[in-house]
Design goal:
CATH superfamily of chain B: MetI-like
Distance between the termini of chain A: 21 Å
Structural class of chain A: mainly alpha
Radius of gyration of chain A: 24 Å
CATH architecture of chain A: Orthogonal Bundle
CATH class of chain B: Mainly Alpha
Shape of chain A: flat
CATH superfamily of chain A: MetI-like
Order of helices and strands of chain A: HHHHHHHHHHHHHHH
Number of strands of chain A: 0
Largest sheet of chain B: 2 strands, antiparallel
CATH topology of chain B: MetI-like fold
Strand content of chain B: under 5%
Strand order of the largest sheet of chain B: 1-2
Helix content of chain A: over 70%
Number of domains of chain A: 1
Shape of chain B: flat
Helix content of chain B: over 70%
Low-confidence stretches of chain B: 1-9
Mean pLDDT of chain A: 90
Largest sheet of chain A: none
CATH class of chain A: Mainly Alpha
CATH architecture of chain B: Orthogonal Bundle
Oligomer: heterodimer
Number of domains of chain B: 1
C-alpha cells in the first residue's frame, strides 16, 4: 500500500492524521456546508451580514416551505425526473443492444462503428447545438420534455455503448459458443445469456447517466424555453435571478436540486465509482 | 428397381443447415440489427449535426430565413474579432488551470489512501462536489466571491488585505471561475487515483521499499508508472471538461464583465442564440474551431484505444 499505512507511523503522527482528516473534510466541504447553513437562516442573519457563521435563527421549516410553495422549484424537480428517468432507460437499452453487437460479433467495420461512438461522445456540445435545436423545431419537439429526452438518449448512447461493449467483451466467450451449439438464436443469446450477466454494468451506467442528465444545464437552456418543461438546473438559474437578495431561499432550492443525485450516489456508491473509474486500473 | 437407385445417386448432398434465408444469414445480419437503433439515434443527433454545423458555418443565417452562402467570410471575421481572441485565450487559461486538478486530485488521493476508521465515508464525502450540479457549485462560488459579504471578503479583511471584486475584475474573473470549476474536477481526479492506488501491486512496493526507496522517489519511480492508466483518463476528462466549460460561466458572470470571461463554448452560444439576434453562421464557425481543437484530443484517445485493441 502506498503511502505507508498510518498504523506503522509513530503514535503522535497517527493522532495528527486522525485529527487532520475531519478538519480537511470540513474545509473541503465548506462551500456545500455554507449553502446548507444558509438554507436554514432567517432574513435577519442575511441583513446583518451573517452569511458564513452559525445561524442565529433556525428557519428550516419556513425557508423550505417558502421555496416549495412560492416558487415552481417542485415543478422543476418534477421535470428533471421526467427528463432523467426516460433518458436512463433509453440510453441503457440502446447501448445494451449496441454493446452486444460490438462486443460479441467479429465483422467488418466493427471497430469503425465503435470508434464513431467513442469519438462522438467527446465532441463539444456547441458543434451540435444549432442543428439539434433546428431538428427539434422541425419535429415539433422544441421546448418539450420529449425533445430533450430524445437528444439525451442519443448522445449518452455514445458513452454507454463504449462502456457496455468493453464490459461484454470481457465475458467468457465459451458461454456464447455453448449457447450456439445448443441451437439458441442470436436474440436468445442476447436475452437469455448476455443480458443477465451485464447487470452490474447496467447498474453503473444507470447511476452515472442519472447524475449526468440531472445535472445537465446546457441542453436544458438550449432546448427548453418555458417553465412548463424546464429542469431544475435551468430553473435554479431563473430563481437566482428573481430572488437576488434572498440567498436563504435560493440555497434551499439548491439543496433540493442537489439531493436526488446525492441520494442515488450514496445508495449505489460502488456501482457509481466502478462506472466512473472504468479503465483507471488497466490499459 | 434400379431406376430409383440411380436417381438417389445423382441427388445432391443434403445441406446440413436448413435452407431458410434468415437461418443462413442470421449470424451476419444480427450485429447490424442490434446496432440499428443506437446507430440511428447517434447518427441523427450527433454525427450528422457535426457536418451540418460545419456547413452552416459557411453561411449567414438567422435561423429563420434562407441561409445565404458566404464562403469563408465568418472565419475571416473571426480572425479579426477581439472577442474571439479573448475567448480563445480564456480557453487556454481554463485548459492550463484545469490541469492542476490532476496533481491536486492525486495529492488528495494519497492523503486519503489509508485504512483508518470511517475512511470510506470520508472518501465519499470528499467526492461530493462532483455529484452536485455545477449550477449549484457556481452559485456558491459567486457568493464566496461576493465583494460586500462573501467569505473571501471576510478572509481578506481579516488578513488586512483590501477587498477584491473577483467576478467584476476583467483580469481576475476567469481565474476566479476556473477555481470554482476545479472544485468538482479535483474530486473526479481524486476518485480516479484512489481506484488506481487500490490496484497498485503491493509486491512491487515492498520490493522497492526493501531496496530503500521511500517517499518521493518511491512515488515517482514505482507508484506513478503504475498509475498511468488513471493519469491518462484524468488527463482526457480534464481536457474535455475544460473545453466544455459553460455552466459555471453562464451562472457566475454570463461572460462578463464586458465579455472578459467568455470562452469559445459560451461565446458561440451567445452569438448563435443571444438576445442580440441569432447569428447561427458565425456561431457555428466558432463551434467548428472548438471542434477542431477537441479533435486533436479525440484522435489522441482513439489512437490509444486502437493500440490497445491491436494488442488483444
Amino acid at each position: 500500500m502506498f503511502p505507508t499505512p498510518i498504523e506503522r507511523a509513530s503514535p503522535p503522527v497517527q493522532i495528527l492524521y486522525k485529527a487532520a482528516l475531519p478538519i480537511a473534510l470540513l474545509v473541503w466541504l465548506a462551500p456545500i456546508i455554507a449553502v446548507a447553513l444558509t438554507s436554514i437562516r432567517g432574513q435577519a442573519d442575511l441583513t446583518s451580514g451573517n452569511y458564513w457563521g452559525l445561524p442565529t435563527q433556525w428557519k428550516i421549516a419556513e425557508n423550505y416551505a417558502a421555496v416549495f410553495t412560492n416558487t415552481p422549484i417542485l415543478h422543476y424537480i418534477g421535470n428533471s425526473f421526467l427528463v432523467t428517468i426516460p433518458t436512463v432507460i433509453g440510453a441503457v437499452a440502446l447501448s445494451c443492444l449496441a454493446g452486444f453487437a460490438l462486443g460479441i460479433y467479429r465483422f467488418r467495420f466493427n471497430l469503425l462503428v465503435f470508434f464513431i461512438f467513442v469519438g462522438g461522445n467527446f465532441v463539444p456540445f456547441q458543434i451540435l447545438m444549432v442543428p439539434v435545436r433546428d431538428l427539434s423545431l422541425k419535429l415539433g419537439l422544441y421546448d418539450t420534455v420529449t425533445g430533450l429526452v430524445l437528444f439525451h438518449v442519443a448522445f449518452q448512447t455514445g458513452f454507454c455503448t463504449f462502456f457496455m461493449r468493453n464490459f461484454i467483451r470481457e465475458l467468457p466467450s465459451e458461454l456464447i459458443d455453448a449457447a450456439r451449439v445448443e441451437g439458441a438464436s442470436e436474440f436468445q443469446i442476447f436475452w437469455r445469456v448476455v443480458l443477465p450477466l451485464v447487470r452490474p454494468a447496467v447498474a453503473a451506467l444507470a447511476v452515472l447517466i442519472f447524475t449526468f442528465i440531472w445535472n445537465d444545464y446546457f441542453w436544458a437552456t438550449v432546448l427548453i424555453q418555458g417553465d412548463h418543461a424546464m429542469p431544475v438546473t435551468g430553473g435554479l438559474k431563473t430563481l437566482n435571478g428573481q430572488w437576488v437578495a434572498q440567498w436563504q431561499l435560493v440555497s434551499a432550492g439548491s439543496i433540493g436540486a442537489a439531493l436526488p443525485p446525492v441520494v442515488i450516489f450514496f445508495l449505489m456508491q460502488k456501482h457509481f465509482i466502478a462506472g466512473l473509474t472504468m479503465g483507471a486500473t488497466k490499459g | 428397381m434400379s431406376a430409383p437407385r440411380s436417381a438417389l445417386a445423382v441427388r445432391p448432398p443434403q445441406p446440413i443447415i436448413p435452407a431458410g434465408w434468415w437461418a443462413r444469414h442470421q449470424r451476419s445480419l444480427a450485429p447490424w440489427l442490434f446496432l440499428a437503433p443506437a446507430m440511428l439515434a447517434f447518427l441523427l443527433y450527433v454525427i450528422a449535426p457535426i457536418f451540418q454545423s460545419i456547413a452552416i458555418s459557411f453561411t449567414e443565417w438567422d435561423g429563420l430565413k434562407e441561409a445565404r452562402f458566404i464562403g469563408l467570410a465568418n472565419y475571416v471575421e473571426l480572425s479579426h474579432d477581439p472577442d474571439f481572441r479573448t475567448a480563445l485565450v480564456n480557453n487556454v487559461v481554463w485548459l492550463v488551470g484545469y490541469l492542476f486538478a490532476i496533481p491536486l486530485g492525486l495529492a488528495l488521493a494519497l492523503f486519503l489512501n489509508q485504512s483508518v476508521f470511517g475512511i470510506r465515508l470520508v472518501k465519499s464525502m470528499f467526492f461530493f462536489p462532483f455529484v452536485i450540479s455545477q449550477v449549484v457549485i457556481g452559485l456558491v462560488f459567486s457568493w464566496f466571491y461576493d465583494p460586500t459579504n462573501g467569505l473571501l471578503f471576510h478572509v481578506l479583511h481579516f488578513l488586512g488585505i483590501p477587498p477584491v471584486a473577483v467576478l467584476s475584475d476583467e483580469r481576475l474573473v476567469t481565474y476566479g471561475i476556473v477555481v470554482a470549476g476545479l472544485y468538482p474536477q479535483i474530486a473526479y481526479c481524486m476518485i480516479l487515483y484512489l481506484t488506481g492506488l487500490n490496484n497498485v501491486r503491493p509486491d512491487l512496493i515492498e520490493a522497492a521499499r526493501l531496496e530503500g526507496a521511500k517517499g518521493w522517489s518511491l512515488l515517482w519511480h514505482v507508484i506513478l508508472p503504475q498509475l498511468r492508466p488513471a493519469t491518462f483518463i484524468a488527463v482526457v476528462v480534464t481536457v474535455v471538461g475544460s473545453l466544455r466549460s459553460f455552466d459555471m460561466i453562464s451562472i457566475m458572470t454570463q461572460g462578463g464583465p464586458y465579455g472578459s470571461s467568455r470562452v469559445l463554448a459560451y461565446y458561440m452560444y451567445e452569438q448563435a442564440l443571444s438576445e442580440y439576434g441569432y447569428r447561427m453562421g458565425y456561431g457555428t464557425a466558432i463551434a467548428t474551431v472548438l471542434f477542431l481543437i477537441m479533435l486533436v484530443y479525440i484522435s489522441f484517445v482513439l489512437v490509444r484505444i486502437w493500440r490497445q485493441e491491436k494488442e488483444l
